């Protein structure tokens, strides 16, 4: 066995290498940190001669910490590494370009353009043209014919532009995402002792040898060894997967690991490993996060190493990816991802299918018309030398078909969402919202309920003691020290100074005449302020009893709701000081100090009297009441672990009333929420009277309201059955009226949030936002649709579980988030309204034009230009509209609201009618109106005509003015309102207009344009401006009178979600939509076989049920949900609750039953229960239902 002194020798005999400066190497410390509990203790004691010796080897002082000398810190970083895990390399711009090129429509276009290019260089001799039955070019057309390659080249050029724009958008999105990550990382600070002072240091600055202060709620930023700890319990599940909290102490297990959470207690540790040498860092290195290994290897590592997936990084780009995985790893209730993304993907898939069909029909008609006209009607032979010319025609038709598809597919949708969300996230930072998950932003716009904490969110979290009850006297102001007996004064000062975290302290104000600064726990700061107001000095007491002398500490947690500290008395024996919620501590008191400081008995009736005369009056004024007590142990040492026996027979010293004033801006913010249709509920651990008083001050409750104020116990009694299980039905009776939940535990908070989200009462499902700051709020924050963590008072654990961090802990910032969320939703709808109008018009024009004139009035390159302004620039212009207060004057949309309302549908169809009328008039009568040559039926490679240039120009100008119309989606008249607040919009409209002038005047052959006269330009402009006037006419037509209008872009219904989400832990609507598209093909094959079987089964079951009317459940072996209707629009409602299903006896459990639309029943392998006969018939009687005829035949 080696002697520790031998080990220390190299440190003294300065060896050349860096490691020689310290008594241990990086590898020594890495190996040490891989050991657990007793193995670790043995290694520390045997190899390093104890923790204190290890500190001296690392040249650090366990009490004072490092000196903070920059040269020393730099040296430590060189020897032991930095506390930073290098992020994964971002994708380069070229990689993003390559990804953008993978788009199928673009690939098809590229191929068609290349074929067109190649064929354009083939020139058959002139006389053969006659044989091929094509018009002979006149000499002046020769030059034009030479330029036949231009169209192909122009298409390729347009594709390149589209690809570059897409890649640039992806690149800037990635950049913003990284910026956001860095911002979150910078926010994370940790308490470190340097030079005897506790300072908040960014996590990346921590070095080996630092002495870190750890407390309840921290996420440990590095590996370390405990030097001193009080009642420390750590959640190591992120590393080990074990959910039990691990007790840490010097004797049993002093090893602390990065990425683990402090669930209870406090202490100090010496940092022994940072960054890639810490346990988390090692696993990240294995995962290949730091080395840019091949994707394949990395994927394998991720799937094999299940434990590693759950690690939370300290400073790593993979943070958010990992979080998603962690959600999946922990068996949490399903949390739906972006609802908006789901609705959009669904809509895009539907539009894409329609576009595909239209483009296929267009190509087919063009080819058939050409073939029939040439070879059947004119009876020309197919000459082999003419084949290239015919192919050129076919390629031209094909290109027209593809451009129809390109215009029909709304690839701008995802772009609009990204731009809108990224823009909002950037702006929300200024409003003190740090968004961690992009989709939280739009979900917030749909929020219908907010469950908020009281302290710090609704109140200022600046606590002060304003009343006190000491020695039978209720002081309504702070008493003067002379009014109290020295003995009592002394015990109050000791009870507060010793029994509070030594990290809580009061510092002098930053500015002259300002308020003293409160550092640490705000409630403890209020008590320390009380000591200062009594003209006493708590520092003197703390220097007399330093933290090392504390014998045992029971730290505050949500179960105890109290804190106690035990010290040894100089005369022998022990004294324990306790403080906590007044009703909890008073229940444990059996004695009380009177005026003279003598101990008096304290009976139950005395307690009731005190609650009535002291505590309730304080609480009704909105004060938090805390009780301070003590207990002496004179007969030997008790068993400290037996908490129940220790925390009894206390002697009450005093009860204080602490004021935490309501933030002045909160009542207004809550009034805004009410107007916006959002219910605010207060969930607090405080006394019910205090909670009610604060709720009234905030405006959550007004006198005379018929709302509920419940305590946690009462709430649980009302919602649980005899077995203690939560029943949704019982909860549904409570939550709609509940406004205040007091004395609640974190479990109550989670139960309430889950209950509201799962509830189906009311006309729409609830979307719930929750605020939280404590470690135990984690589950509720994760369960909520949007979790807000407090940036100042919040623990790392809460921040980790949240979606948005409030950097100023202020409720008004939540209201701002609602406004931004609604704005995102509206921006997308504006863009959709614009995009779909263009889609409808462009597709119909290309299709009918092709069918009637054998050529699309809008050429491929023109279509691509329209697609570019319509998709990219319009999404930029409409998605960056700043929010207005008017957004808070309507009710939330909710989960199931369609994206395209009937008003929007009216606008889309109305403007499409105007545009189509104008374009068709120009196509078929334009040449007469303008007195120019007709551009219809032009031969191949003919020069661009003025006729078709006017059509193109008019079309683009109509879109431009319609873009201004699209700024309003709720039927408002003034479409120019606030237009100059959005400079991007003005720039895009102006830029597009200038580009259009350049294209028409100088675009020439590539854009199939020719110069226009001034009068023709004025006509085009006049028709364009007509869009604005037409918009006014449309908005005068009441939407209600147009009964035929349908909504579109519905969300996925709840039943479809449960059906598709079997086995998923997180529901991603967008992915599910795409998956469903793939499933459709397989369904088609199954459907025919299935229908015959099902109809037979159904037939016989129906007969049975008619013959035996008593047996109402006779079809119970048929299916779970009555989803017979194939039509998407028929609302599907589950007629059985999941719990009921499981209780029903299943006659044929385990058989797989296929439904009419070829889908396997979701619960097929549990019970194949159907619905009551009567209910089936109701569903079946929808006229769209395929069962309609069947039902009547029975």
From TrEMBL:
Keyword entries, A-Z = ATP-binding, Calcium, Calcium transport, Calmodulin-binding, Cell membrane, Cell projection, Cilium, Flagellum, Ion transport, Magnesium, Membrane, Metal-binding, Nucleotide-binding, Phosphoprotein, Translocase, Transmembrane, Transmembrane helix, Transport
List locations, semicolon-separated. Answer: Cell projection, Cilium, Flagellum membrane; Membrane
Q: Domain Cation-transporting P-type ATPase N-terminal, which positions?
A: 45-121
Q: What class of enzyme is it?
A: translocase
- PROSITE patterns, per this entry? ATPASE_E1_E2 (PS00154)
- Identify its membrane topology class: Multi-pass membrane protein
The UniProt catalytic activity note for this protein reads: Ca(2+)(in) + ATP + H2O = Ca(2+)(out) + ADP + phosphate + H(+)
Question: EC no.?
Answer: 7.2.2.10
A Pfam cross-reference name:
Cation_ATPase_C
Q: Which GO terms describe its cellular component?
A: plasma membrane; sperm flagellum
Q: Name one GO molecular function term.
A: PDZ domain binding
Primary location group: membrane
Write out the GO biological process terms. Answer: negative regulation of calcineurin-NFAT signaling cascade; regulation of cytosolic calcium ion concentration
**Residue intervals passing through the bilayer:** 356-377, 397-423, 831-852, 904-925, 945-962, 983-1004, 1016-1037
Q: Work out whether the entry's keyword set contains Calcium.
A: yes
Q: Give the record's family classification.
A: Belongs to the cation transport ATPase (P-type) (TC 3.A.3) family. Type IIB subfamily.
Subunit arrangement? Interacts with PDZD11. Interacts with SLC35G1 and STIM1. Interacts with calmodulin.
* PANTHER family from the UniProt entry: CATION TRANSPORTING ATPASE, PLASMA MEMBRANE CALCIUM-TRANSPORTING ATPASE 4
Protein role: Catalyzes the hydrolysis of ATP coupled with the transport of calcium.
Q: What is this protein called?
A: Calcium-transporting ATPase
Species of origin:
Neomonachus schauinslandi
The beginning of the lineage is: Eukaryota, Metazoa, Chordata, Craniata, Vertebrata
């Amino acid at each position: 066995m080696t002697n520790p002194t031998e080990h220390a020798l190299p440190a003294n005999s300065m060896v050349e290498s860096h490691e020689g400066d310290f008594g241990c190497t990086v590898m020594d410390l890495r190996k040490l940190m891989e050991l657990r509990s007793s193995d670790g203790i043995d290694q520390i004691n045997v190899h390093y001669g104890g923790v204190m010796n290890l500190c001296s080897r690392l040249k650090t002082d366990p009490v004072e910490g490092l000196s903070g000398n920059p040269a020393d810190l730099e040296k430590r970083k060189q020897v032991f590494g930095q506390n930073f895990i290098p992020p994964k390399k971002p994708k380069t711009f070229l990689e993003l370009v390559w990804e953008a090129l993978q788009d199928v429509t673009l690939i098809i276009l590229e191929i068609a353009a290349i074929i067109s290019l190649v064929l354009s260089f083939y020139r058959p001799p002139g006389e053969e043209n006659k044989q091929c039955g094509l018009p002979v070019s006149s000499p002046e057309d020769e030059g034009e014919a030479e330029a036949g390659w231009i169209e192909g080249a122009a298409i390729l050029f347009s594709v390149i532009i589209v690809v570059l724009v897409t890649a640039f958008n992806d690149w800037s999105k990635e950049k913003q995402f990284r910026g956001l990550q860095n911002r979150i990382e910078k926010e994370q600070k940790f308490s470190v002792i340097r030079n005897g002072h506790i300072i908040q240091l960014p996590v990346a600055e921590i070095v080996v040898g630092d002495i870190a202060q750890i407390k309840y709620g921290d996420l440990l930023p590095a590996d370390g060894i405990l030097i001193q700890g009080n009642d420390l319990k750590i959640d190591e599940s992120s590393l080990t997967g074990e959910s039990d909290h691990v007790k840490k102490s010097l004797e049993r297990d002093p090893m602390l690991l990065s990425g683990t959470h402090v669930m209870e207690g406090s202490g100090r540790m010496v940092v022994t490993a940072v960054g890639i040498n810490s346990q988390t860092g090692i696993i990240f290195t294995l995962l290949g996060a730091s080395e840019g290994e091949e994707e394949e290897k990395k994927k394998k590592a991720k799937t094999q190493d299940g434990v590693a997936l759950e690690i939370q990084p300290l400073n790593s780009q993979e943070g958010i990816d990992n979080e998603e995985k962690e959600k999946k790893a922990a068996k949490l209730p399903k949390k739906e991802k972006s609802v908006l993304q789901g609705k959009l993907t669904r809509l895009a898939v539907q539009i894409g299918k329609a576009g595909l069909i239209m483009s296929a029909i267009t190509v087919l008609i063009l080819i058939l018309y050409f073939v029939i006209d040439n070879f059947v009607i004119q009876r020309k032979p197919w000459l082999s030398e003419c084949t290239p010319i015919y192919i050129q025609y076919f390629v031209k038709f094909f290109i027209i078909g593809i451009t129809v598809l390109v215009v029909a597919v709304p690839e701008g949708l995802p772009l609009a969402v990204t731009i809108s969300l990224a823009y909002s996230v950037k702006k929300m930072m200024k409003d003190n919202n740090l968004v961690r998950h992009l989709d939280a932003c739009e979900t917030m716009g749909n929020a219908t309920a907010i469950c908020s904490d009281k302290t710090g969110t609704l109140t200022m979290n600046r606590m002060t003691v304003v009343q006190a009850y000491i020695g039978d006297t209720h002081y309504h102001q702070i008493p003067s020290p002379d009014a109290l007996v020295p003995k009592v004064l002394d015990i109050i000062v000791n009870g507060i100074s010793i029994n509070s975290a030594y990290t809580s302290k009061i510092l002098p104000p930053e500015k002259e005449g300002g308020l003293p600064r409160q550092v640490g726990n705000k409630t403890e700061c209020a008590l320390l302020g009380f000591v200062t107001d009594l003209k006493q000095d708590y520092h003197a007491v703390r220097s007399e009893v330093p933290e090392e002398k504390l014998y045992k500490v029971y730290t505050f947690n949500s179960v105890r709701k109290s804190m106690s500290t035990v010290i040894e008395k100089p005369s022998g024996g022990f004294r324990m000081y306790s403080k906590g919620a007044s009703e909890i501590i008073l229940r444990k008191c059996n004695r009380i100090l009177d005026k003279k400081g003598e101990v008096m008995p304290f009976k139950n009736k005395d307690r009731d009297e005190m609650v009535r005369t002291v505590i309730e009056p304080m609480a009704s004024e909105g004060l938090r009441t805390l009780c301070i007590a003590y207990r002496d142990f004179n007969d030997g040492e008790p068993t400290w672990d037996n908490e129940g026996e220790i925390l009894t027979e206390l002697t009450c010293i005093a009860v204080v009333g602490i004021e935490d004033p309501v933030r002045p801006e909160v009542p207004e913010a809550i009034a805004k929420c009410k107007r916006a249709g959002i219910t605010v509920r207060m969930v607090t651990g405080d006394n019910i009277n205090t909670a009610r008083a604060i709720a009234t001050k905030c405006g959550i409750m007004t006198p005379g309201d018929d709302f509920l104020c419940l305590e946690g116990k009462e709430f649980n009694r009302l919602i649980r059955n005899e077995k203690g299980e939560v029943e949704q039905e019982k909860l549904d009776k409570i939550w709609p009226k509940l406004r205040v939940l007091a004395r609640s535990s974190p479990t109550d908070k989670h139960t309430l949030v889950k209950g509201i989200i799962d509830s189906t009462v009311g006309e729409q499902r609830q979307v719930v936002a929750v605020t939280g700051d404590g470690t135990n709020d984690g589950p509720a924050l994760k369960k909520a649709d949007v979790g807000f963590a407090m940036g100042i008072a919040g623990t790392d654990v809460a921040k980790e579980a949240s979606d948005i961090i409030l950097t100023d802990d202020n409720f008004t910032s939540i209201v701002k988030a609602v406004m931004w969320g609604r704005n995102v939703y509206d921006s997308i709808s504006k863009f959709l309204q614009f995009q779909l109008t263009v889609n409808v018009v462009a597709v119909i024009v290309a299709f009918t034009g092709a069918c009637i004139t054998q050529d699309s009035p809008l050429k491929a390159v023109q279509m691509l230009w329209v697609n570019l302004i319509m998709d990219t620039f319009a999404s930029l212009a409409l998605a960056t509209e700043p929010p207005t207060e008017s957004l808070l004057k309507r009710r939330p949309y909710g989960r199931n609201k369609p994206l395209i309302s009937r008003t929007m549908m009216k606008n889309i169809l109305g403007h499409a009618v105007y545009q189509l009328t104008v374009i068709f008039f120009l196509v078929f009568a334009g040449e007469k109106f303008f007195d120019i040559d007709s551009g219809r039926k032009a031969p191949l490679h003919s020069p661009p005509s003025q006729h078709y240039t006017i059509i193109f120009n008019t079309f683009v100008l109509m879109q431009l003015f319609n873009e201004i119309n699209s700024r309003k989606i709720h039927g408002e008249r003034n479409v120019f309102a606030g237009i100059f607040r959005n400079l991007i919009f003005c720039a895009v409209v102006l830029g597009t207009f200038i580009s259009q002038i350049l294209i028409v005047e100088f675009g020439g052959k590539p854009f199939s344009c020719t110069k226009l006269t001034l009068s023709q330009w004025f006509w085009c402009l006049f028709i364009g401006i007509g869009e604005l006037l037409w918009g006014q006419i449309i908005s005068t037509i009441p939407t209600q009178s147009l009964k035929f209008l349908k909504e579109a872009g519905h969300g996925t219904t709840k039943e479809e979600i449960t059906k598709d989400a079997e086995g998923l832990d997180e529901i991603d609507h967008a992915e599910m939509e795409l998956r469903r598209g793939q499933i459709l093909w397989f369904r088609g094959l199954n459907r025919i076989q299935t229908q015959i079987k099902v109809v037979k089964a159904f037939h016989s079951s129906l007969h049975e049920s008619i013959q035996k009317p008593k047996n109402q459940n006779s079809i119970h072996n048929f299916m779970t949900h009555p989803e017979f209707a194939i039509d998407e629009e028929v609302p599907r409602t589950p007629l059985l609750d999941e719990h009921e299903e499981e209780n029903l006896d299943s006659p044929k459990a385990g058989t797989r039953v296929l439904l009419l639309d070829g889908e396997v029943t979701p619960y097929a392998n549990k019970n194949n229960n159907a619905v009551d006969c009567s209910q089936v018939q109701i569903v079946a009687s929808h006229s769209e239902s395929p069962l309609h005829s069947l039902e009547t035949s029975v």
